[in-house]
Write a structure and sequence with these properties.
The complex is a heterodimer of chains A (about 525) and B (about 90). By secondary structure, chain A is of the alpha+beta class. Helix content of chain A is about 60%, strand content about 10%. In chain A, helix 1 (about 5-35) packs antiparallel against helix 4 (about 120-130), helix 1 (about 5-35) packs across helix 13 (about 345-375) and helix 2 (about 40-45) packs across helix 18. Chain B has three helices and no strands. Chain B is about 85% helix and about 0% strand. Chain B has about 90 residues and is an all-alpha fold. In chain B, helix 1 runs antiparallel to helix 2 (about 40-65) and helix 1 crosses helix 3. Classes of the chains: A alpha+beta (about 525), B mainly alpha (about 90). The interface between A and B is large, with 42 and 43 residues.
Chain lengths: ~525, ~90
Amino acid sequence: MTLEPFRASMTWLHSYLGIAMGGVLFAIFWMGTLTVFDKEIDIWMRPEMRVVTPETFSLDEVLAPLLSDIEDETDYFFVAVPSARETLLRTAQRMKTGDIEMRYFSLETGAELDLLDSYGASQFFYPFHYELMLPWQQVGQKIVGLLGIAMLILLVSGVIIHRAIIRDFFTFRRRSKHRRQVLDIHNLTGTIALPFHFFMTFTGILIFIIGLFHPAFDASYHGNSRVFYEERLGMAFDRPLSGEPWLDVPSLDAIKATIEARRSQESGQTEVATWLRVANFGDMAAYIDAKQKYPSNNVSMFRHHTIVDAASGDILASSPAKKPFHEAEEWLDGLHYIQSEHWPLRWLYFIAGLLGCIMIATGNLFWLNSRVRKGSIDPGHVKILRGLTVGSTTGIIAASAVFLIANRLLARDVTLLGYGRADLEVWAFFLTWITLFCHAGARGRSAWSEQCWTIAWLGLWAVLLSWATTGDHILSTFESGLWSVVGVDVTLLTGSALAAWSAWTLRRPAVVVTLTQQSVAD
Amino acid sequence: MTLLQTRVWRVLISFGGGYCVAAVAVFGCGVILPLAGVSRSEAVTFGLLISSLVYVLFFLWTCTTRHISAAIVVSLVSMTVVVGFVVNWGATP
């Protein structure tokens, strides 16, 4: 085989792996960046969630009537307590038939809310981020896992091929040629957020790693993965049904207080049980499994469980302290999920995620511009490649804005061809995205600025439509302390302004070329 | 063989071989570390933690090494082990 120098082979690998995977990697990065604020976008998209959660509340007052009514048909019942980012009390009832019914309650009024039919960010942007809307046989997760490996390879090869990585950190030649500027932005965004890109990619792979290497995992556990999770948790608890109905509906408030007191005593800090699962529902042998999955002041994702007898309130089992490797893994998972209530860190994640998007987009753009300049690609292929590059970057951003606009425009009970409102929002996203791919292929170089103008207008319209349909404009939401809505509106307006500025900047070289051609013709 | 063919072959060997080598690393940790007193779940977790790094290192090595035949041998041996434990796992009741 022909051998080439080390750095040359890395350059080739970085270029071609980047161009082959760049479009999908951009989609993953973009959706991941939006997911940093998924719960806030949910509140923006479902106006019923725009309520203030009282500091003290009683679960029994809200849920006791419901728990009495559903005894016969329920297998287990799950309660998620509101947090600083979630305003509503959320419950999931798993029927004996296997169906799951979700309910949302306002703790201000105690009433069950009929939420707008929408997937929101947490059920559309988030699954898109980790499985590309391909849930069948976890195919999407495996693709994203392998793309994560590719991203890690791109990062390592990128560091190797940049001889002067420290110099790149301080370099942006604003007055140099357009192609050089693009490369400078690619290097700059890649270098500034390099640690973020490394740990997000690494921890992202780690989340899928069991699915990715399941043959090795299954071989270690002879196909019984449950044993692994029990060993990792340090406990295994199961209690069969007694066949006798429970005497009374358990008091969730009392049980929650018992668990929190016990956990706070053990850890020496205030602990809150945010997830409660009532198993063996309606039976004398019912028990409650409680945990605080996302601690407010800690990066690590706790999976500490406490099992309490539903009738007596006695603690039946409690998971022991974590072993070092398990603790390390949960810390790394937490670093990716960023569920702690640390707002400056959350904004840093958002900005670093955007820098990642810019790095991928400018990488693709540089590759394309270089080939066009050298004339090494057939003009027909340039059209296709430009269509793919523009559509996969500005196209998906515009489609995300259309998803928000569709959420504000569609009637509450609308159906079309058997699809409900939530599905129609997703259709709006994909139809826009496909249209913008075609537009980019047809319009050539001017597609960049045209799609940036489109993003600028769509962002502005999303804010105006939110105001028109809910009556909440930025000043009123600011006054009433609805920070989630303020944040989304301000981010949309900032995004619009940046898109308009980009559109104006991208338009200039085309004007210069036109004038030069005109001068030559004259 | 042309430079392009060489590159394509190297990338294919890197992707396939890297996966097998990383899978063997996970399995190997699950077998070897418990012999040193580490619990099985911790050993497998450690294997999972390092597997993506093993994958990346093998990938980069295969793309650049002068000894591509060595990379091919390592890939084939790892693939045999992976197929071996998939078949064995399938036979487990």
